[in-house]
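INTERNAL AUDIT FORM
Audit reference: QA-55
Scope: verify that the stored structure record matches its stored sequence.
Auditor: D.O.
Record contents follow.
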Amino acid sequence: MKKHNFFAGPSILPQYTLDKTIEGIKDFAGSGLSVLEISHRSKEFIACMNDTISLVRELLDIPAGYQVMFLGGGASLQFAMVPMNLMEKKSAYLVTGEWATKAHKEAKLYGEAVEVASSKDRNFSYIPKGYPVPSDASYFHITTNNTIYGTEMKKDPDSAIPLIADMSSDIFSRPVDVSKYSLIYAGAQKNLAPAGVTLIIVKEEILGKMTRQIPTMLDYRTHIKAESMFNTPPVFAIFAAQQTLQWLKDMGGVKAIQKKNMEKAQLLYDEIDRNKLFVPTVNDPEDRSLMNICFVMASGYKELEQPFADFAKSRGMVGIAGHRSVGGFRASTYNALPRESVQALVDTMKEFERNN
C-alpha cells in the first residue's frame, strides 16, 4: 500500500532528493567516497556548498548585500542568536504560536522584548492585525507559518524597523521579497532537507552594532567570514538541500510550486468545509496555512476522532494526528507532497463520511 506522508517535520522529501542522496551516499560527486565520509574541506564538498548557496540566491531572488549561511543548531538556536546579534535594548515580537512564543522568551534574556500582539486568546487560531510596532526597537520578529496551529502570513509585511522572520515551515513555498527583511532563518526539516541544518539569510549591514560581546561561535560574522565552515557543517543535510533546491528549480521555481501548493490546500480546505464530520481550526481563509492544514471533528461527532484516525491509517495516511495542544488532525502539505496524496486524503474523508 502506498503511504501518504503528512508529517509536520521531519517531513516528506522529493523522490528526486531521495534518489540523489542515495547515489551520494554510495559515491559523492565521483570522488569514490560517500558524502557521509567526505571532508568538508574537499573540493567536491566546497563545490556543493557554493552551488547550494547559489541556488538559494537564485530561487529567492536575493538582492546584493545579503549573506547566505548554513548552520547547525536548528531554528531554536536562532531564537537566541537573533537577539544576541541584533538587539541592543529593545525588540518587538508578534506571538502567533508555540515557536513564536519560544523565540519571544529567548529575546527577554537580552533586554525588553515587547509583545506587539498575540493570538493566544483564541488558541493561536488567527493572525493579529492592526497592531503598533515600537519605532525604537532594534527589530520586529515574526513567524510566517505556524505548524501546530495552521496559520500563515502569506504576504511580506512592511516594517519601519528591521524585519526578522522565522520561515522554517514555509520557506521556498512562495515568492518572498527578501529586500523587506533584515534576516530570515529556517530549519530545513520541513521544506528543504533532513533535520540538521538551518538556513540563514542576513543583510550584512545590520551586523556588528552590538555593544555586548558575542561568543565567537554565535556571531553571524564568524560564519560569514568562514563561509559556513567555521566548524564542520552538517555535510549530509546540505548535500540533500542542494538536491531539493535543484528539484525545485527544475519544477519551475517558487512561483510554480506556489501554484501547486495553493491548489493542494484548496482541495483539502474545500473538503473540510463541505464534510459534515469536520471543521477547520482556522476560520478566516486569509489566515489559513497552505503548509499545515488543521481540522477537528465537528460538534456531535467527537467520538469519531479515533475511528477516523484508524480508518485513515488503513488507507495509507501517515502523520495526520494533530498536535496535542490542538487535537484533531493536521495534514502538512509541503512542497514535496504530491497532489495525489491530498486527493487520497480527501477521498478517505468522503468515504468515512458515507460510512458514518
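Auditor finding: record pair retrieved intact. The first strand starts at residue 4 and ends at 5.
Action required: none
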